[in-house]
Design brief:
2 domains; binds zinc ion; mainly beta; five-stranded mixed beta sheet; twelve-stranded mixed beta sheet; Fumarylacetoacetate hydrolase, domain 2
């Protein structure tokens, strides 16, 4: 397994390999190259100018994919995956602020395992799905709950700029079937789920989504959130942790 981080340099974005929290030089791109041996150490991950791990063409999200989370919204578990899209303009990196416009009501964190697609996938069979995965990262499906209820569909509620933190790294060759998924706000544990409790697992989701729309390299699937979602406010710090990947940290700002 390799952990790959994207970071900014004066000459443009680059990728590095992360070993024991330290980013090392790597002259490759995860969309085209297999990770090789790490080069020279560049610095601790948390001190590097980290970028989102990919620039997705689209973000396909799954609602109500954990039964206990559906129950906390008094919603039924669907008999098929319930899909929606977040715009690529919502994506921010590890460390960047989630900016909540003042006056939009309750805004929640949603800790999620994110799948990064590595090969064009169209009508993929469930048993072949893993061949199309580049790796996994952590996502926060930030959601304006009042708009979600008022609008009846979720484009506005989940589409604000900065409402999709992704990162901090891409974990390759990870088995997604039994990973702890946690959210902490100001250090307090709010969500503590496990991907084993998904209603529809990752291979099923890739097959289901790719029967609807072609998935391109760099596209991202957000696989749903476990129970324990809760509100965010100005000055909060949210940590989204997925076992085997790392912890995605973002401060929250309410902006006028
Ligand atoms: Zn979600």
């Amino acid at each position: 397994m390799a952990l790959i981080a994207a970071f900014a340099t004066p000459t443009g974005p680059r990728y590095g390999l992360v070993v024991d929290g330290i980013v090392h030089e790597w002259d490759g791109n995860p969309l085209t190259d297999r990770p090789g041996a790490p080069g020279q150490a560049l610095g601790p991950l948390d001190e590097m100018p980290i970028l989102p791990p990919v620039a997705p063409g689209k973000l396909v999200c799954v609602g109500r994919n954990y039964a206990a989370h559906a129950a906390e919204h008094h919603a039924a578990v669907p008999d098929e995956p319930m899909l929606f899209l977040k715009p690529p303009s919502a994506v921010i990196a590890h460390g960047a602020p989630i900016q909540i416009p003042a006056g939009i009501g309750r805004v929640d964190h949603e800790a999620e395992l994110a799948v990064i697609i590595g090969r064009r996938a169209r009508r993929v069979r469930r048993e072949d799905a893993h061949h199309y995965v580049l790796g996994y990262t952590c996502a926060n499906d930030v959601s304006a709950r009042d708009f979600q209820q008022k609008d009846g569909q979720w484009g506005r509620a989940k589409g604000f700029d900065t409402f999709c933190p992704l990162g901090p790294v891409i974990a390759t060759d990870l088995d997604p079937s039994r990973l702890a998924v946690r959210a902490r706000v100001n250090g307090e544990l709010r969500q503590n789920g496990n991907t084993a409790d998904m209603v529809f697992d990752v291979p099923f989701l890739i097959a289901f989504i790719s029967a609807v729309m072609t998935l391109e390299p760099g596209d991202v699937i957000l696989t749903g959130t476990p129970e324990g979602v809760g509100p965010l406010g100005d000055g909060d710090v949210v940590q989204i942790e997925v076992e085997g990947i790392g912890t995605l940290v973002n401060p929250v700002e309410v902006v006028g």
